[in-house]
């Protein structure tokens, strides 16, 4: 008879076999179940069970795997419960979708109040409750539970979410990927941004956006504006869901690191607003399976701009030295740039003339206050350009200021520069005793020359183009203690300047003997005339003419076509700031006749004496510089242009789409007429005659003229219409023809420059 085995031996044997079977202590190399890192640890029941997907560690074949999966089909927008099927008691559980852990909260958390925005809830038996099933919930689900240090995987569930509406191509509401799927109520409602799915126009969309401005590092509340009762809400920024927690979660203690809180009305509280919070926000709420979008909010987080700086020719100006030299009559463009700023700052310009300029020129020309502002678009910050088309001498010491306006600034930021206008000398000659009073031998006489120039230029007196008979003082005086007859002659004042050498109009000093003066003083005509009556001025330069003191004349200009003197105003001073070729010619200070008699001959002589012939020199100029002409198909067309050059032009030509015409040349298509003179000195006229305009003649025509001082160009843009009036589009071959014309034009310009050099 066999002896029975004691109970304690049986228990020990079972324990040994169980430990050996489960491999509880054997160390192996395995992949961590969630983070994917290969590490050496004791292979636990958790790893062993996951590899077999059940408590049984025996490897399963594919048939048994398929049969062990529970398949569930669900419609969208319903509440679904997935059961965690395990045969052990457990203390904790997690759910995985496609092997990834899903964040869940307890269904009865926070006194049976759900955390808004969470759809995945756990009941007290470890089952998963999916609130409002969506298409993205489709996939393989599985629970894992832990008890006494062991991990047991539940039976996997293959969830298939059914689509019940027609398939359309639409943009996924949150990830922005275009894909074909069944459009749900959620997607349909979001596209309309309200419960009404009627398409909205741009105006109504713009008016339906609430705009909020906020400073940084403050607490801000965004209200969820909907007209329905709701059970759950989420917030989106630029279409992406934002993770939020309830404000009163965890017994009024915030979860560290979370800045986005929800109150019990679905409003979003942003704690410590940052720049990255700038953008479009919108809440979405769910009720009875429907999704309603709240009124969108455009949040602008204020960020004050940095200090602005100035650019000229894309070079940054030194902030410590903003005194900018610029030549008179030149074109000046200044850029103001400011970095940063949210929203983008706005820039404006101010021009303030110097006090000395206002004193010297009480009647400031309106052109002096004109400037052009251009806003340059930038991704970050702002930029504005200001342009003075022609800098005048009245702009000397003017202040140009850029102002930066921004909602975050109490006072605008500013940066400014001071204009140092370099202009040519102008002269003012005075005499003591005054002009018109006869000078007798032995009298004390003083001549004074004042020069207005920048940089400053010292006056230098000359008599008959040589040194004066008496020593000149540093401040421009010629002092004759006792003037003599031999001191008579032509006096003028010259100045050497940065921009060249300049001279005043000549003044004739006539000294009489005492015996010649037998009656009351009269005007001396010779004193009021100028040397040679010739004055050379650079193109674009300034001219200042004054009738001599003691006369009540006004200035006129001789019209060469009619031979008449055209009045230029009632003033005795004539100023031309930016002289053109057309303004050259003879100018006279006309003294009116007061009474008939013996003085008429003297007055006629006086009129002839007070005249100046102005000659303008410079590079060639073509008028107009740019013109657009519309031709009629099949009809002839004549292109005519005027040009001026002094010194005279040396070469001129027309450049068309496919060839070059010199004046006097012709072919079957066009005739380049010979150049003719106009009534204006040093000005001419050129013309090109197109015999029959077709689509091949559409494009750009250039007239180029050259002199020793440079090149001038005029451009004609020829368009085409039919006789009925509608426009004709260019043929496709025009692009190639225009390119060829561009190469031809560049080639001609290069050849002309090489020959000039």
UniProtKB/TrEMBL annotation:
Q: Which residues form the signal peptide?
A: 1-23
One MF annotation (Gene Ontology) recorded for this entry:
cell adhesion molecule binding
In its keyword annotation, does this UniProt entry include Signal? yes
Q: Which GO terms describe its biological process?
A: cell-cell adhesion
* Keyword Glycosyltransferase found: no
Q: Where in the cell is it found?
A: Membrane
Protein's name in the database: MAM domain-containing glycosylphosphatidylinositol anchor protein 1
